[in-house]
């Protein structure tokens, strides 16, 4: 086993995981296909791109999503901290300046000496496949609802195999 | 693995008006001709509760139908259009085919009479249980592209849902996600290959903050798994209490579910409040939130 953890996908889940793992002193290899390839909904070259609304929903504890944010604050979430720091006025909701939010997360990840960003798409038929990666290291797939076809195909095969 | 999401809205049971709503499966628990209303109700009370039914009279139906066909829909990405409509039709598209189309489809008024009047309803909306605790119900056949605000406005016109609390709105969009209840453990680890974890919306959690929360759980667990491999000690999975939202979400996506659909954070997935019943929703949610935060760093016996 290699002495690092692999993460595929530099979105919200992937960057949070990368930060937490590096914080524990373990090196991270983060694969992100942007800026070489984009999904139909992604346009920015930054990590942690906020694709849909710029609202992270309610900040109130009496709202389920507000409670989840508070739990994450207590667990030292990088992304919620940056969301808090880049917020724009939105009443009870936590809305962010989406450019600034992504830029801040990208900087934080890029400047972390334990995190290596690999700008490469992973999947079936590509130079790097998911099956290769999981043979070498613990791997986290965090490629989201618009996972590219070669990777979706490989995940489907891997999860079908008993 | 699923490639698109065609989900109907979900309401909490406690927000349904049971002076209107009644239980029963229109196919297997229908009222027999020779049965009186009282006999039928008595028979049903002895059986397992199934669907919740919301009967409508003609006027209520027509008001609802008119609002539905006039409501605003979301614009889809080009790439989504061709993938989506193969399997199932949005309720508003079906409604636009004619005023009575829904009454021959998901709102078919068959099986039973309205317990309040003893008469056959003009249309019946069915709600199907969505979680094990029977706190959440989905509107059967109501996959939709209406804007969220419009869903609330239009679906609250359905008798019994006037105060309906929609914890999740219906959606139809491209969404790749796993059949997590079958494939993943409560730590988002693939059951068939412990070296592979998943995080984010691919696991069926829905929303920005929910994705971040799964990234957090997966990070803590891959750290623990990595250390255990390196030091050749047992891997003790790190899970959060079911009282917490972060723990409950992980539990939700990894618990067997007849028809798994992506899920947002919501109070319906937390265990009920054990103390005296609190009627005021805000007050109750406040209590549930305090309980959650108290249990956030709680380590169960044997996991220390």
How would you explain this protein's 3D organization?
The complex is a heterodimer of chains A (162) and B (304). Chain A has 162 residues and is of the alpha/beta class. Chain A is globular and about 50 Å long. In chain A, the strands form two sheets. Chain A has a four-stranded parallel sheet, sandwiched between helices. Chain A has two domains: 5-49 and 102-160, FAD/NAD(P)-binding domain; 55-96, no CATH class. Chain A has helices at 12-23, 64-74, 78-85, 98-110, 130-136, 149-160, and strands spanning 5-8, 28-31, 55-58, 87-88, 93-96, 115-118, 138-141. By secondary structure, chain B is an alpha+beta fold. Chain B has two domains: 7-173, Beta Barrel (Elongation Factor Tu (Ef-tu), domain 3), CATH 2.40.30; 178-295, FAD/NAD(P)-binding domain, CATH 3.50.50.60. Helices cover 31% and strands 13% of the residues of chain B. In chain B, the strands form two sheets. Chain B has a six-stranded antiparallel sheet with strand order 3-4-5-6-2-7. The chains are: A alpha/beta (162), B alpha+beta (304). Strand 7 (138-141) of chain A pairs parallel with strand 9 (196-198) of chain B.
Short description:
The complex is a heterodimer of chains A (162) and B (304). Chain A has 162 residues and is α/β, with parallel strands linked by helices. Chain A contains six helices and seven strands; from the N terminus they run E-H-E-E-H-H-E-E-H-E-H-E-H.
Task: Set down the secondary structure blueprint.
The complex is a heterodimer of chains A (162) and B (304).
Chain A: E1 5-8, H1 12-23, E2 28-31, E3 55-58, H2 64-74, H3 78-85, E4 87-88, E5 93-96, H4 98-110, E6 115-118, H5 130-136, E7 138-141, H6 149-160
Chain B: E1 2-7, E2 10-12, E3 22-23, H1 37-45, E4 52-56, H2 58-70, H3 78-84, H4 91-96, E5 123-129, E6 136-139, H5 148-155, E7 166-168, E8 171-177, H6 180-183, E9 196-198, H7 208-231, H8 245-253, H9 281-295
Antiparallel strand pairs in B: 1-8, 2-6, 2-7, 3-4, 4-5, 5-6
